[in-house]
Amino acid sequence: MRLLVVEDEARLAAALQRGLEAEGFAVDVARTGPAGLDAARHGEYDAMILDVMLPGLSGYELVRQLRAEQHWLPVLMLSAKDGEYDQADGLDCGADDYLTKPFSYVVLLARLRALLRRGAPERPTVLEVGDLRLDPARRRVTRADAEVTLTAREFALLNYLMRRPGQVISKIELLDHVWNASLETAPNIVEVYVGYLRRKLGRDRLETVRGVGYRLAM
Amino acid sequence: MRLLVVEDEARLAAALQRGLEAEGFAVDVARTGPAGLDAARHGEYDAMILDVMLPGLSGYELVRQLRAEQHWLPVLMLSAKDGEYDQADGLDCGADDYLTKPFSYVVLLARLRALLRRGAPERPTVLEVGDLRLDPARRRVTRADAEVTLTAREFALLNYLMRRPGQVISKIELLDHVWNASLETAPNIVEVYVGYLRRKLGRDRLETVRGVGYRLAM
DNA sequence: CTCGGTCCTGAGAACGCGCTGAGGACGCCG
DNA sequence: CGGCGTCCTCAGCGCGTTCTCAGGACCGAG
Question: For the whole model, what pTM was predicted?
């Protein structure tokens, strides 16, 4: 699950990132309104956590812009409750949920999970490819109706692959989305985890495309 | 979509090439400043990804030179953020966008797409010539709806040929684009791989034009 | 027909990618 | 503290891929 956090306050952004990553999300952070908008447009996130007060472009304007461009990414808005903006405004402009600062981290998580469960309307909440089934909300994977237990990392990897079955996905892209790693890190870790998945899901489910990447058999 | 990557660090260059090719781009790599400049002048690319630190000619100088010659190829610059040069310099000398190392691959992709969007509209991702079909994203080739498995090099060669069906393409050009090879390497390797392709695709698909090069039958 | 050059192809060597098992670091829980 | 599970690093290995090479086929010119 990929999240975009748009927050200019460095400390809060870092805390959110760390916390959410501990939950198994892949988190990207943008520091300004325009940067956030750009990332949301192109990044294929599952949800966005968005501060209202941002340099360059306010959270409200950002969502309005995004919706105008037909992006239906779930948005969870954060704002100081000092009155200038209020909750109605936030929901009005197209956000899916709303939280006022200071908020409890547990509440944020709960709201976020709820959002993700709803998902974008056109995307099914349960991914199915062949006899594989993956439920992001319940964090469950079954193969031919038999449950398969995966570690957080394995789950994240499979989740990513199942969103683009049949396509070849490069190791860098996997490193980037599943590990949030830079280009310098050794791609061997991907090979290792593909190995783990193969052991649990069956040998020929994940095809190696030599010199390029991996493909989930359809 | 054709991209030119100018980067001297071998590992990063290779990673970028793979990742971007998996996205369906046709990627050429140049290792030095002068080589990059030369390629940019003649290559008809849709965009260029350009490192700042390069042997022979810096990225800055390269762009400046290019712009002075009236080439308006979109340029995405990469640089270490260790201060010596800064972002303003980069944009100043004519680059269209700027990224500091280490950067995330998603961000690079997003910025690149944004750059390309300003330019020409995207071409269809699947190439078709006769009953041959090549899908760069899925890394798949079919001949009369039957799948053909190709090695990386074979795929790269066919990919290049299929972008200009009916045209005669010289061995040097193929060496240059498919192998990224210097002029010293023996052109026999091209003959060998044309042989491999003929074996897999059918004898009369690739025509030899003696003394000149090869042509993909339309 | 002969000759020079170009192209084709099979054999095999060299290389490097990807796979795997072993094991260390770390955090969590009893 | 010790046991456990997860995550990751590392080195060795196997094998597919890539490339070199040499001999022969083919083609065009004279």
Answer: 0.62
